Amino acid sequence: MAGALISVLLERLASTTYEYIEGGVKLVLNVKEDVEEFTGTLQVIQAVLEDAEQRQVTDQAVKIWLDKLKDISYQMVDVLDEWNTNILKQQVEKQEREGDPNAHVTKKVRFFSFPRFSSFPRFFCVGKVSDIAPKIKDLNDKLTEIYEERKKYQFLSKELGIQQPQQPQRPQTASFVDISGIFGRENEKEVLIKILWNHSSAEGKGLLIIPIVGMGGIGKTTLTQLAYNDDRVKTRFELRKWVCVSDPFDEIKIAKAIIGEKPPKSNELDYVLERMSTSIKNKKFLLVLDDVWTDDPKKWEQLRVPLIQNGAKGSIILVTTRKHEVADMMRTTRNMINLGELNDECCLSIFNHMAFWDRDVHEFGDISKEIVKKCKGLPLAAKTLGSLMQNKTKMGEWKEVLHSKIWDLEKVEQEVFQPLFLSYNDLAPTIKCCLLYCATFPKDYEFERDDLIQLWMAQDYVISKGNKEKGTTGDAVFDNLVARSFFQDFKKDCDTGTIIGCKMHDIVHDFVQFLTKNECLIIDHGEETTSESKVFGDKVRHLTLRYFPEGPLPLFISSYNCKNLRTLATFDSRITTIKPNLILQLKCLRTLNLSFNPIEELPKEIGELIHLRHIDLSFNCILKILPDTICGLYNLSTLRLVGCSNLTKLPENMGNLINLKHLYVECCGFLESFPKVIGRLTSLQTLDVCPCGGDKDEAFQIGDLRNLNLEGSLQIRLQGDATDKSEVEKAQLWDKKLFTLTVDLEGQTNSSSSSVEILNALRPHPDLESLGILWHIGTTWPNWIQSLHNLKFLTVGWGTSCELWPLGKLEHIERLALYRMEAVKKVGVEFLGLEDQTSFRIRSPQIFPKLKQLCFYNMSNWEEWEGVEEWTKEDSKITIMPDLSELRIGGCKLLKALPDFIFKTQLRTLDITKCRRLAEHYEEGSGERAKISAKIPNIRISSGTYDIPGAFMKHLSRWHV
Ligand SMILES: *[C@@H]1O[C@H](CO)[C@@H](O)[C@H](O)[C@H]1NC(C)=O
Ligand SMILES: *[C@@H]1O[C@H](CO)[C@@H](O)[C@H](O)[C@H]1NC(C)=O
Ligand SMILES: *[C@@H]1O[C@H](CO)[C@@H](O)[C@H](O)[C@H]1NC(C)=O
Ligand SMILES: *[C@@H]1O[C@H](CO)[C@@H](O)[C@H](O)[C@H]1NC(C)=O
């Protein structure tokens, strides 16, 4: 889809800035002129792209023309990127010449500000400008040729206002429904009818708006038709109206449709709304607004107000839409019905109904079932495929359909993809590009939000957060795709509830693959010679390899447009080596994902791939070192090395990666220190784990965190004896916008400062929400902990101290886990923040006022949990854990019983695992068990394994790989 891509490119070109330094002004002027001309030409061409894209389907010449255009555009991007890289290189070299920037702080700041704020080329007159300028000129000339060529095709231009290029047709819907073809949805229908029934009977209730939301083809309209035509519903409303709204949202048309018979001829909005008001005056109505797209509140308000003011109480509006934004705009998300997939049985019924009419169903029974699986619960697909089979009578024909890719079936393309096309066309160009990029992943893949966003950034589709004024951020795109039902099966963060992962419906995946079949290709091992991969091979820009067995990166990829590849990824493969001359061909690569392969060594030639922005080598267990040439990849912004368990060190010159924003090194057990130069990476925002310590001159020290602009989540692992509190203070952690912090003091031996002094010096940002403190040896807590007013999650573990901290004093804590504190034998009232059994009289009466979840794990010597006598009295003035809803205890073998106060909380879930004595105490059938069962609805006592809730796993992950 060239259109979206070129729009995005134009956006970037338009924001190019030119800077002149030190002479050479003329050259830069030439370049500027050329780039501006290029941009201008492209803008003119853009106006005809929509038409061209429609026509390429049938006209091969148009297709070739579009391909050429795309090619030139990509080349321009690459040339500009090459130049920009040269500038970065100069910067780095200058830095080298001037020595360690840490020594001259002010100079450094100015210097580094450059790459951080540039999202696309800025021109300096330096270095190889003389090489690149002719290239740009040449591309400009080529584009002019393409521009001239376009006249041949007489495209329709958007600008000229002549007839809009044909949009995919939006189907009209009506309220009539043929019940015989509908299967499933009984539950949904009953729920909906009950709501309609209830609301229409209730006296004194206003207008109710119910949005029915789901992807295109999932059956929203059908469900609504079922409810609309149900006899129980019919009797309830004086007036029922079905309006097919579609896009654009035309208030006058809708109002006229509501008026029904004899609508006014006038198109005066006010007059039409007046007439509409009269027609519904004091009537109880049921209005269906089918297929609403607009999320413009102004348009909606104009219609809503007269509807609310004139209808009788108990009136209802049903709205079907595939956009959550519509429900948001109507402020009715609370009543929203989310329509999910249909089960396979119902799909089969639909399919059979369409395919066989009066023929024998059993004839192709087994194949039907297989074909229906392709529908993945999408009734529209079942219907379409069923009707496709209607007049197919030969087994061979059935098998052909079964084995074909779903998008090769013309009928599917026309009917199933059509509703998706409508959704797709409604997206902004940037979002289109991002959606299409998902085609590089296999079906059923679970996308992770941050991963995906970083990949989009690597392709320059979106810009990073700090750069909002220059374009769309990845987060906005992700949320948009979620809101428009392109994603589903959400995984949410246990702390914040934000969506961090999702999947894509198979049919949507088919759809994006269909749209990108020239550009994105997934090749399974053994498939490399099929005709399809051959045909598209030379256009491919994103290549994904699957199931490749142990051996070198296969050479055949060099026949796949290798020099133009922008993404190369592997899934479920066992690549061991990469030939230098193969990697040298991948000159345009921006993303390289070789995770989960057993690669021993990366060729040093990787340093030549100057456009690389994203490298993922995670879970390469054999990899010991990275080639130092990686440090010449000045554009690199993400480096993922998670789980590289044999990796011993990072390259010495990492400090040159001045664009590096995200570095992931979690679970690299042998990576005991960082090179000191990491401290120069001022672009760095994400650093998941940070080993600090080791040789003071060579290795990264905690104080070197000072210049990093970290955000989000960080695990600090203090090591060796080089750590004292003055070094720790240098890190100025309070300045870093961290929400999650884990401090692991395990390796912290012989340090000159005590463990609590070090903790005191690590005072985090006041917004910190989640804190883990591991291996703290000492009985006092850090002096800042009570001042963290946003601290909700706390994990404390591996401390050898006997006394527990008075954690009950932390008023904001919502979830608390104590982990493996082996010296603890007794948890007394001190834990609650009380001095002793009587001191509650003088203290605030609320203890752990917000605590919801409390967990103890592996406290293997813990025997007693002391109660609070006062609290058992009826007229007690204190409350303990008033909000507690979940208590989990795992691997505490010696603990005898739970204190009584626990049973006066609101506890809903009690999970006891691998706690021998507790299990005996609360044995099934015993009096004690009966006592707790009466109070707590969910009790599980078992000897199995226990899951640590995600909020705490963030702190403990290193110990659980
Ligand atoms: C209908 O109303 C009754 C009584 O007001 C209520 O108990 C029931 O939950 C309602 N049903 C639905 C589906 O809202
Ligand atoms: C199947 O039916 C469609 C119309 O329903 C018709 O256009 C097509 O030619 C038929 N195909 C065969 C093989 O009979
Ligand atoms: C890289 O590929 C692996 C599978 O091999 C996948 O799990 C991972 O998400 C990919 N990483 C990125 C950043 O795409
Ligand atoms: C580390 O590499 C050695 C070979 O060099 C290998 O035997 C060992 O299994 C590797 N470790 C891991 C965790 O894979």
UniProtKB/TrEMBL annotation:
GO terms for biological process: defense response; response to other organism. GO terms for molecular function: ADP binding; ATP binding. The keyword DNA-binding does not apply. Keywords: ATP-binding, Leucine-rich repeat, Nucleotide-binding, Plant defense, Repeat. Residues 190-357 form the NB-ARC domain. PROSITE patterns: LRR. SMART domains: LRR_TYP (SM00369). This is Uncharacterized protein. It comes from Prunus persica.
